[in-house]
Design brief:
Blueprint lengths: L8 E5 L4 H12 L3 E6 L2 H13 L4 E5 L5 H15 L4 E4 L5 E3 L7 H28 L3 E6 L14 H21 L4 E8 L10 E3 L25 H12 L10 E4 L3 H5 L1
Parallel strand pairs: 1-2, 1-4, 2-3, 4-6, 5-8, 6-7, 7-9
Helix pairs in contact: 1-6, 3-4, 4-5
């Protein structure tokens, strides 16, 4: 199986931590030059520095994916300074506010949709000309089990809606972009050990909580949440020629979490 990305350039949003950070290292180890894009400058720089210290090429870029001017400039800079664009991992996302629907403010709703759904759209939109110029490429989008196979977590209305939209967008983009040999696939992670909880806000969830109690071994396979690098391995597969005949797919990576709970 050929997982080499030698001579290619990859752009990763949300690359400063969690799944994005792990993907940056994995893609770099496979030979790609990596643009580490994050809304926080220090984490992006730290990840890029670690890659370059290992002898690989990386570029740290600060950008909010929900800001069209910022993400457009980030994509253009990555392609210009690293020599094109072949792989895009549209990964940036937030949990946002978790609260009952009748208590959620419009600003809270919009903040989650703007980052998770609109940010994915803008990242893909501004990457297309560069991928087309390269003769094709691979786009991988981080969706979630929430909104696609799981609908029972309390207060997740905005997040789940954004991630359901991301999967629909993936399928539309996959068909539209296939004429230019650009593949688009979505990954649906379950419980992953990341720091996304640091930017998660909760209010009055007891009103809508069904009181689910997981069994002692949870999730069913392995009994523990996945590490980010385990998801990054799937990203590498989708970025590489090993998956050259795959597009429009939604790939579950949740250790049977939603088979039991969904």
């Amino acid at each position: 199986m050929d997982l080499s990305l030698a001579g290619r350039v990859a752009l990763v949003t949300g690359g400063g931590s969690g799944i994005g950070e792990a993907a940056c290292y994995t893609l770099a180890e496979a030979g790609a030059a990596v643009a580490v894009v994050d809304v926080r400058p220090d984490p992006a720089r730290i990840v890029a520095d670690r890659i370059t210290q290992n002898g690989d090429r990386a570029l740290a870029i600060t950008a909010d994916v929900g800001d069209e001017e910022a993400i457009s400039a980030a994509v253009t800079r990555a392609a210009s300074e690293l020599g094109g664009l072949h792989v895009v991992f549209a990964n940036a996302g937030i949990n946002g506010m978790q609260t009952p629907i009748d208590e959620m403010t419009l600003d809270e709703w919009n903040a989650t949709i703007q980052t998770n759904l609109t940010g994915t759209f803008l990242t893909v939109k501004h990457s297309i000309p560069h991928l087309r110029a390269a003769g094709g490429g691979s786009i991988v989008i981080t969706a979630s089990v929430n909104g696609n196979t799981l609908f029972s977590l309390p207060g997740y209305a905005a997040y789940s809606t954004s991630k359901a939209g991301v999967v629909a967008f993936t399928k539309m983009a996959a068909l539209e972009l296939a004429r230019w040999e650009i593949r688009v696939n979505a990954i649906l992670p379950g419980a992953i050990q990341t720091n996304i909880g640091e930017r998660t806000y909760r209010r009055n969830l007891d009103r809508v909580d069904y009181g689910f109690k997981p069994p002692a071994k949870w999730p069913p396979l392995h009994g523990e949440s996945a590490q980010p690098n385990e998801v990054a391995d799937l990203v590498l597969f989708l970025a590489s020629d090993a998956s050259r005949y795959m597009t429009g797919a939604e790939l579950l990576i949740d250790a049977a979490y939603t088979l039991w709970r969904g």
